[in-house]
Amino acid sequence: MNELDFDLMVxxxxxxxxxxxxxxxxxxxxxKLFAGINRLxxxxxxxxxxxxxxxxxxxxxxxxxxxxxxKTWFERWxxxxxxxxxxxxxxxxxxxxxxxENRRYTLTDDCVDLISDSEKDYxxxxxxRYIYSLLTNLTNELYVAVRRFIVENPICAVEKMSExxxxxxxxxxMINKIFSEAYENVPNGSYxxxxxxxxxxxxxxxxxxxxxxxxxxxxxxxxxxxxxxQDGNWRLRHGVMRYMCLPGxxxxxxxxxxxxxxxxxxxxxDRDKYDVKITLPDGQVWAIDAKTxxxxxxxxxxxxxxxxxxxxxxxxxxxxxxxxxxxxxPDYCKICNDALASNFPDSIAKCVSMRxxxxxxxxxxxxxxxxNYQKKS
Length: 377
Fold this sequence. Notes:
REase associating with pPIWI RE domain-containing protein; 5-stranded mixed beta sheet; Trna Endonuclease, Chain: A, domain 1; 3 domains; pPIWI_RE_REase; globular; 49% helix; alpha+beta; 377 residues; 14 strands
């Protein structure tokens, strides 16, 4: 089997699970899910895995396979077949869904990453692209100010928006346009997510948020802060939250760490050529791109086509990922760095966790201070 066919099978299943999940009818049908499961069934038949075929109808597949890492689907298969597919990126995908007590399921971060990389997430991607196109009409200073406001306010009261617009009254009309497109009504029955700050809703006891990582170890529903649109609350649209605000929260953390170390930190230099430009006390420039892919194989694929740092004048270049990305994938950074070494052998870019980046920056600043002290001595 070639990687393209394997890739298509897993992506069809992921997108099909999304399609089925979007419909509240438990008997809803997804042609993509059907096609993906059929491809898996054909593969099982060719490899004489006849016992598996009885489980490859929709309900049994969801309960017995979609809840497990992809590689476990092939645990009892011929070792030669496993060796041929274990080098495929999507073979290492974690479980696509999590089942709740009422048999309703939520998509995992790995599944969402797959959908985001496929055609099915075009609506959410279009939302953030449209907001970005509006932002680019602003001056550099206002571009940063408005984008920062969006990142810092996933839920926002009308009064706070009005206050910001009045502070920049000369650009009132354009900012008003951006806010009206970026924000939407808070749904009924919403709460403030204690992790990302967006809305958290519940289907029975099952919590839902745009960032699936937020659903781990959440407080009890009664301990969360309820929200109502009637109180003047608005929230970012799903696409703006997922593709602009969540990475932006990581970018602001990087800026804060840099400034705490005594460095200059510029957000989104040259209209987002990359995410953070850090200037050390000795004039060194570090270029940072913050990434929030939960699956390293999705980031690997992205950076293999990424030429953002090819002509960047910087002494060090980093792709920085959240620390908890390494919980499910301990080799996360190695996977991405191997791809960088293979595709950009002359590149100085490397992928690191936030913790390692912070440690490296603090260490470099201390070295700069020591060199300066030695020069004066």
